[in-house]
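Researcher: For the record, we're logging two predictions in this thread. I'll number them. Prediction 1 follows.
Model: Prediction 1, sequence and structure:
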Amino acid sequence: MNYYVDMQHDDLNYEYLYGSTYPLMKNAGRAVADAVMKRYPDAKSVCAVVGTGNNGGDAIVAATILREKYDVKVLVVTEIRSELAKKALSEYGGQVLGMEAIDACMKCDIIIDGIFGVGISGDPKEPYRTAIERINGSGSHVVSVDIPSGLGSRYAVKPEMTVTFTMEKYGMNRENSGDIVVADIGIPPDVRKYAGPGDLLYYPRPDPSSHKGMNGTLAIVAGWEFYGSSVIAALAAERIGLDLIRIYVSERNYQIVSGYDPGLIVRPVSAIDDAVAAEIYGNSAMLVGPGMGRSAEAMDAARKIILESKIPMVVDADALNVVGEYQGSFQGKTVIITPHKGEFRRISGMEPTEENAVAFAKKKGLIVVLKGQVDVITDGKDVYYSKGGNPRMTMGGTGDLLAGLISSFLAKSIDPIRSCLMGTYLNKAIGDAAHAKHGYWYTITDMIGEIPAVMDKYIKI
C-alpha cells in the first residue's frame, strides 16, 4: 500500500470536491496540539522544527494553538514552499528561527518534528540530517507529525509519540515511532466515494527498462457498422500511453479506420474465428461494442469473445445486448459495462436508478458504470460516483471516448474500480478543459486533444 499516494489522493480529491485543503491542515495541527497538551501538561516550552511542505504546515498550526499554554518557537530548516504552510506561518504570529538558532530550539522541553511527511526516499540530506541528529540528541520530549521524519532511512527522528492522521502508516511501530496516536482530521467519505484528480495518481509509471507490450496492449472490437466509434475509442486509448492498440473492424470499414493513425494496428475481419479470437485474447484487455451495430455477424462476434474471453474487458454500446441476454454470471472474470440510461433500461428491464444498477451488477457479477450527469459506478457491493462535465458532453462520441479510457487503464493492470474512477473523472475533466478553450463549440477531437495536458498535470513521467 502506497500511503504517500493515498494521502495525495485524499488531498487532491478533497480540493476538487470542497476547495482548499487548509481545513484539513488546521484539523491536523489541532490533533497534534491536543496530544501534546494531554501528554505534557507541565512542560513550559515548545519548538516546532519544520521543513518545506504541508507536514511543516501541520506543525506550525500546532505551534499556533500551543502558544496559548507554552513558550513556543518555530524553526524553519531551509525555506517553506507549500502555499498552505506559508498561510499557516502567516497566522502563527510567534517567534521564527533559522538553523543558526538551533541550539535555542534544542533547549525546549518539547520538540515537534514537522520536517518530512510520507513520500521522501533515500537518506535526508543536509541541513535536514543535522536537524534530525540534533533532535535525537536533545534530550527533549519529541513528537512527530504524521510520521517520524526520515522513517526507513539511516537518519530518522526517534520520537516519544507520533500523531498520525486517518490511519497508521506502513512501517510504523512502537520502536521507531513511539506511542502512536491515530487522529481523525475530518476527511469526508466523499473524498473516496467520488472520482477526482487524485485517482489519476494511481497511474503506473513505466519501467525505463521495459520493452514493447509491458505497458499494456488493448484489443478494440468495434466499428463494424459505424467506424467513427472505433476511431474515437482508439485515439483516446493511444493518449493513455499503451504500447499497442489493435482494432478489429469489419472489412468494409478497414480502409477508413486504418487511414486515421499509423500508430494503430487495424485488422479487417468478417467474423471472429478461433485464430482471431486467440490474437484478441493475447492482449492485456479488450473493449467490445462501440459502433459494432446489431447485425447477426456483429452480435455473433461480440457474443463469442465476451462469453469466452478471460482477459479484462469493457463492454459498451450494442455489445451490451450480449450481457443483457446472458442468463449466467460473469463472476470470476473482470467485466465492466458502460451503459447510458436508455441502454441500461434495455438490457436489464429495470429503471436506470442507483439501486437497480447495484442489483444488476450483483446479479451479473460485473461492474456497472451507469453514465449520466453524475456517473454511478458499482460492483454490486460498493458504490462510487463521478460528477462534472458540461452540456456539450451529450454529443455523440463521448461514450466511446469513455469506454476507450476505462479499457486503457484496465490494460495497464489498474484495479477495475480504480480504472472506472480514473476514466470517468478524466472524461469529464477533458470535456471541461475543451469547454474552457472553445466554449460550447468544442468537438470530440478537442476532448481527445486535452488528455495529455490533464494527465501531465498530475502524472510526471
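Researcher: Logged. Prediction 2.
Model: Prediction 2, sequence and structure:
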Amino acid sequence: MRNSQLEEIRLVGDVIIPGDKSISHRAIMFGSLANGTTRITNFLLGEDCLSTIACFRKLGVHIDVLEEEVIVHGKGIEELKEPNAVLDVGNSGTTARLMMGILSGLPFHSVLIGDASIGKRPMKRVTKPLKQMGASIDGREDATYTPISIRGGSLKSISYHSPVSSAQVKSSILLAGLFADGTTIVSEPEKSRDHTERMLKAFGCELDVNGNTVSINGNQRLTATDVIVPGDISSAAFFLVAGSIIPNSEILLKNVGVNPTRIGILTVLERMGANITLEDEKMVNGEPIANIRVKSSKLKATVIGGAEIPTCIDELPILALAASMADGETIIKDAEELRVKETDRIQTVVTELSNLGVSIEATKDGMIIQGNSSLKGANVKSHGDHRMGMMLSIASLLADGETEIEDTNCIAVSFPNFKEQLNDLIK
C-alpha cells in the first residue's frame, strides 16, 4: 500500500457501493425456488455470490449472468434435481447454512463442501434444528463441520429458540419450514438482520413477524419477482469510517441499503460524533435505500455491545479502527460471534492493529481500544478475510510510513473494485 502522510491525504468524491451480499445470495436462492423468471439488478458479482449461483446450477436451475443483470429461470421447487457432484460453497457461510435449510426439504441426497475456512466454521447451530425437523444430516463431529451430507424431504414443523442471534440460523430454519407440514416458529435472543423475511414476502410468501419471533406456514410456493439489490452497508462501512477519521474528507455513498437491522454502523458512528446524513431515502423491494453523506469529524470513545451487536457484527473490525482514532477508551463486548467468522476476528483485529501501533487488547467477547493512536507503517496480514483486508487498507492511509498488506485478493469476496474506488477518492 501507499506511503502515507496523513496531513497530505483527504478523501473526496462519490462511491458506488456494490450490491448487498446478503440480499444477492437470497435473490438467487428464492428466484431458484420460485415459479417464473427473476431479474436481479446490481447483483454482487463477488466470489461468495458466484458460489451460490454455481450451487443452484448444479441443482438444475438455468441462471444467466449478464453485464447489467442476473436472470434466474425458476421452474419451482419440484423441478430442482439431485446434483451429480458435490456443492462447493467456497468461502460463503451464508451459502452453506441457507442451502442446508433448502436441501433439507428436497427429496434427494446432496453433499456440501467449502474451502479451508468453511471447514472450521460451526454448522451444528443449523444442522441440529434441521435434524429435529426430520432431515437426515451427517458430517464431521456429528455434523458440526463440512463436508455435510444431507438426505432431505418429509420435514415436520418445529418451534425453535435459537441460542444465538444469527440471520443465517433463522433463515435456514425458515427455508426448511417452507417444505414442512404445519407452522415453523423461530425466535432468537435479539433480532438479527431480516432480509429473508422481507424478500420472502416480495416473492409472495406469507409469514408472521412478532418482535424476535418469526412464524412461517409450510407448503407455500414462491412466485418470481424482479429484485433491485441495494448497496451493501457492510461494504459502505469502510468509507463511512474513512470519511469520518481522515481530515477534510467528504464522501457520498450512493444507493446504500439502510435496513433497520443493519444500521448499527450508523448508530455507533453517530454516537461517536460522526457527521453523517441520509439523503434521497426510498423503499425498493421492501428494503429502505438512501444516499449517505459523511464528512470528517473528531470522534469520541463509546461502548458497543448488547442488542446492537447483531446490527453491526460485520462492521466491528472497521469500528475498531475508528475507535483507535477517537478520544478515550472504546469497549466492544458481547461479540463472541466474531470468533467464528472467516477468521477469529477478535484475535486478528487485535494482532494486526497492534502491529500498526494501536493500543488494543482482546477480551473473551470483544476488545478494548485506546484512542488517539499514532499508526506506524508495518507488514500486516488480511488472514484471507475480506473485511480485514479492507480495514487494513483504510488503516494504511493513516499510518506514517509504508504499510504492506499480505493477501488483498480476498477483498474480491465482497467488494471486487474496492482498491480502485478508494484510490479515486484520494486527493
